Amino acid sequence: MSVISTPNQFESPAKSHEPHEQHYLNHSKGFLSWALTLDHKRIGLMYMVLVLIALFLGGTFAMLLRTELIAPGPTLMADKAAAWNLYNHMFSLHGAVMVFLFIIPAVPAILGNFVLPMMLGAKDVAFPRLNLLSLYVYAFGAMFFLYVLLSGVIHAWTGTSLPGGFGLDTGWTFYTPYSSTKSMSGVIPATFGAFVLGFSSILTGVNFVSSIHTLRPKGMGWFDMPLFLWGLYATSIIQILATPVLAITLMLLITERAIGIGIFDPALGGDPVLYQHFFWFYSHPAVYIMILPAMGVISEIISTFSRRHIFGYTFIAYSSIAIALLGFLVWGHHMFTSGQSALANVLFSLITFSVAIPSAVKVFNWVTTMYKGSIRLQTPMLYAIGFIWMFSIGGLTGIFLAALSVDIHMHDTYFVVAHFHYVMVGSMLFAFIGGMNYWFPKMFGKMYNEKVAVFAAILLFIGFNLTFFIQFVAGSQGMPRRYATYPVQFVSHHFWSTIGAYVMGASLVIVLFNWVAALINGKKAPANPWGSNTLEWQSASPPPHDNFATAPVVTDPYYLDRWKFVSDEEGWVLTDEAKAALAAGAARTGRAH
Amino acid sequence: MSRVHAKFRAMVSGNPAEAAATDGDHGHHGGHHDGPHIVPVWLLAVVLIILLALTVFTVAVTLVDLGTFNIIVALGIAVIKSAFVVLYFMHLRWDSPFNSVVLMAALVFIGVFLAFALVDSSEYRPAVDAAVSTTK
Amino acid sequence: MSSITTNAGDSHGGGDGHDDGHDDGHHEHPPFLAHHFDTPEQQYTTGKLGMWVFLGTELLMFGGLFCAYAVYRNNHPEVFEYAHTYLNKWWGAVNTVVLLVSSFTMAWAVRAAQLGKKNQLSVLLALTLLGGAGFMIIKTIEYRDKWEHALFPGKFNVYNKNYTGTHTPGEGHGGIEHGANVQSPATDNAHGGGAPAGESAHDTGVGGKAVVKSANLMTGPEASPRSEGANTAPQGPAPGEHAEVIAQGKPTPGPANPVIYFDPNSLGAASDAAKIVPKAAGPAGLATDAVHAGEHGAHLAYADLANRDKVRINTFFSIYFLMTGLHGLHVVIGMGLIAWVLVKGTQGIFGPAYYTPVDLVGLYWHLVDLIWIFLFPLLYLIH
Fold it and tell me: Is residue C32 part of a domain?
């Protein structure tokens, strides 16, 4: 029987005696109540289902391509040409699905949608209908990738080609002129899908910027917000400014491929390097779209599980904005060997070094937050600590690559592959899963099995490092990326990397099953299982439809001493001093009426 | 510092009342009521006439060849016209200052993109020309 | 506090079926106020901010196209100088005026909504809509003109290497001023590079121009015998050369006579600028900036272009169509939005308390106008 969750004061008396409580999940029933919902929490959940499907789809491609690479020579198919061709499709689809369907939306669309309004003490985002539209636009864009997949499968099994091409073999970067002239794969449906997905991202960004600007309650100034919101705000800036350029890039690519406008094709007087400028102007800031919300999650987790106020709040807040803005000036570091001019090379290399500074600021602040803290190694904290470790490696290897002279050798090798997997998977995925575990009790009102979760976290950490650390070595020794086979000196590198990939895959399956099991018969979650002081924990788990039964009280989001731990069942509750302060009105109040 | 801080917070809060409170010279609201600013029709008409005049000017100036300045003049006139549209038709002159920040940010980043792309392509163009001209 | 909810109106708010009668009576929530906003002012400023942020994204999107334009024009100014003569700047100017006036009526309409003047609002919105329609009609006229000259983007463009249609390329004609005559460049050289009436000074020195140009273009050991000729129809590929057939007075190209515009062998001097020859009566020497070679009025002739640039003419048209097409799409979307607001306005729901939709639609329409303000000089007024 829940004692902690504040009863919904609008329930009829008869209802409050029943164990069944009203929250957003059972607030209304029926397919349409979900399909046409304006509730940001439900929208977040629907995103979660779609995005997790994308994660496992992309992961399947990863398993397949790593299986191909477990030994030199063709593995998945007997015929070399067929195996190499299949490999091209596998890595392209892995990249495209993971980037466009998983990483970019994951934290903002799932965790952001769910948590942002609650952290603001608000009832919803600024534009709820736009939010629903974002979801549908995402689903619509995903359809195109599904089509590409199906056409690839159909072509592989029956040899028939569906209109638009089959599969995708250009790499997720769709470089011209191969993608615009030679490739017979589904470039147009895939890029059109990415084009549509871009709008989902843009609309989410518009929504979040507006929400953070205008829905903050009285008493929550800019520098009183939780850092997760700063991360989402910086992300939204990037989504708004960068994604439209991707839209144009893909539109140009599609028209180039469809009717040969000649803008990127040298044979028609075009410039393929211009395509790369266009593409990376979005895609580099895109990686900051991936990491900034993750960093926001980490700030929340580190503070809560160290029982310490986050160290250097202002620095972390400003560094989020700095990363967002500086991230727009460095895209050419993906093009050092592409024929860019020497002047541009030097400029981009120099500016890229500067982007590391705000990221490092964050890492120092997190570590300092943990220092002399009362650290509780629960699952979200394990993911956060893993994040710090792997983000440091990923970030530092980024500096290696920022150095022009080094990048000339490392470009298009496994060193780059390892670098970006450390930041995208080792950092972002870890933060995402950590965040999911952190907010899982709030979202579903259930607790997952902690032991299984810890086991999966450790297994994932081991599997990930086994997969990718060795790729730094392989890359620095010359193993090129996107190659389906390799000479004998790389056999052990690839073998262990593939074993690591299988371990990773297994651990992710365990993570998922743990969540599903928790949904089915997890223990009831208290309102504040972790003792955090951000506003969402002042509501029941799961929250009512309008997020808060009584107006939340705004205090410093990292003022953790207000809470004391009672028991696993009751979680954390306000200390007597905190309650007295509330009664005395000493705390700043929430909404005005 | 705190006054600047307060102004920053007022500016980005999107709350016009807060902005008005911290912004001393922003008090008048068209002279009548306390609500949002309403543009007088004569002002809109004047702006339209200016815009039309600038359009005529921009076409007329093509009759004169100014060399490199052609494009600068053309773009300059376009910028002036857009400034009028943005400030008066789109009401930005009387709006929350943060909306202007949004517009400026978009323009700055377009500028960054254009600048780098133009500089880079200009830089490698001689290499491309040389390569093409020796192609057999 | 924030948990107290009231009915959300359906006109602007978020009615999601959350209608459990919680109107506690001592707080009025106007019907247009969404349930998650505290005050109408908050809703209004949020809407405005959201709209400006969205306009920012639209600007970035068009900015990408402007970047493509800028890079191409910077690298191949002669292509733009030549090809743009197919555009009629008078139609472009009329379109500019139409959009400016419609922006004026739109801004006035916002004012009318703020003052609750229902009829005035309807009239002004209708006028704005009319302006938009007028713009699209003129656009259609312009596009049809392009169609008649087979100047569509990509492989449907007569200048494109992969063109498989039957049209022959002509000179720039300045749009509505020319008749339906399409002439091959050979005969068109007499007519001049599409200059409007009064600039036939371009005609002089044509013959000499061709000779000089040929000498420039086709110097080098691989010079084809044709290069020596003065503006005569080509004899066909010289022995041992790439097949190069420039459609100068030749029979209709088609699959049997592939039109090839680019022969690497024909390139002599490394710089494009050297290939532009000023009018015989023009200033001595050559401007270093090829865009402004020669004096005003001396529009380039097709024959003046480097072979490499002939290949790129279709890029101009692709950029033209992409930019104006995307812009036209936004005009149509804007017209749809204005129509929606017009209908809503006739119901009398706009007034001093609530005029946000008119305001936001107005912002969108002004953006459409803004983009055209830049498109016009950049595409139509190149010289």
Answer: no
Domain membership of residue C295 as a residue range: 162-310
Interval C309-324: pLDDT, tens: 777 788 888 899 999 9
Query: Distance (Å) from the C-alpha of residue A317 to the closest C-alpha of chain B?
Result: 14
C-beta of residue A241 within 8 angstroms of C-beta of residue A279: no
Sign of CA dihedral B45, B46, B49, B50: negative
Nearest CA in chain C to A129: C14
Mean pLDDT on A11-28: 65
C138 and C166 fall within a common domain: no
Spell out, as residue ranges, where chain C has pLDDT lower than 50.
Answer: 1-26, 171-298
Taking every pair of C-alpha atoms in chain B, what is the biggest distance, in angstroms? 77
Answer whether B70's CB lies under 8 Å from C383's CB. Answer: yes
Does a structural domain hold residue C29? no
**Residue C103 sits in the same domain as residue C147:** yes
| C127-159: pLDDT as tens digits | 999 999 999 999 999 999 888 877 878 777 777
A164: pLDDT confidence band, cut at 50, 70 and 90?
confident
Q: Is B19 on the interface with C (CB under 8 A)?
A: no
Q: Would you kindly state where each structural domain of chain B is located, as residue ranges?
A: 1-36, 40-90, 96-136
- Cross-chain residue pair A252–C309, CB shorter than 8 Å: no
Rounded Cα gap, residues A437 and C65, in angstroms: 43
At residue C221, the pLDDT reads 35
Residue of B nearest to A328 (CA): B109
Decide if C20 is inside a domain.
no
Using a CB–CB cutoff of 8 Å, tell me whether A268 touches chain B: no
B18 Cα distance to chain centroid: 25
Q: What is the ipTM of this complex?
A: 0.89
Q: Please report residues of C whose CB lies closer than 8 A to that of B47.
A: 104
B123 touches chain A (CB under 8 A): yes
List CB contacts (< 8 A) between B119 and chain A: 341, 343-344
Q: Distance (Å, rounded) from C-alpha C361 to C-alpha A226?
A: 34
**C254 lies in the same domain as C319:** no
Last residue of a domain, one of C310, C330, C361: C310
* pLDDT, tens only, A291-303: 999 999 999 999 9
Phi, psi dihedrals of residue B88, rounded to the nearest 5°: -105, -50
Do C188 and C121 lie in a common domain? no
Number of domains in chain C: 2
Question: A145 at the B interface (CB within 8 A)?
Answer: no
Task: Please state, in angstroms and rounded to a whole number, the distance separating the CA atoms of residues A110 and B99.
Answer: 28
The residue among C11, C16, C309, C363 with the most chain A CBs within 10 A of its CB, best to mutate, is C16
Spatial contact of A74 and A110, defined as CB atoms under 8 Å apart: no
pLDDT at B134: 58
Residue C133 and residue C230 in one domain: no
Report the relative pairing of strands A446-447 and A523-524 from DSSP bridges: antiparallel
Query: Which of C265, C292, C310 is the endpoint of a domain?
Result: C310
Touching subunits of B (3+ CB pairs, under 8 Å) are: A, C
Q: What is the pLDDT of residues C47-93, one digit of tens each?
A: 999 999 999 999 999 999 999 999 999 888 888 888 888 888 889 99
Whether residue A271 lies within 8 A of chain B, CB to CB, comes out as yes
Across the interface, do B116 and A332 touch by the CB < 8 Å criterion?
A: yes
Structure pTM? 0.82
Min Cα distance B78 → chain A (Å) is 22
pLDDT digits (tens, 9 = 90+) for A314-343: 999 999 999 999 999 999 999 999 988 899
Between CA A18 and CA A14 the distance in angstroms is 7
* Cα–Cα separations (whole angstroms), residue A567 to A529, A578, B97, C24: 9, 18, 50, 37
What residues of C are in contact with residue A261 (Cβ under 8 Å)? 153-154, 314-315, 318, 322
Domain at C127, CATH number: 1.20.120.80
Contacts of B104 in chain C (CB under 8 A): none
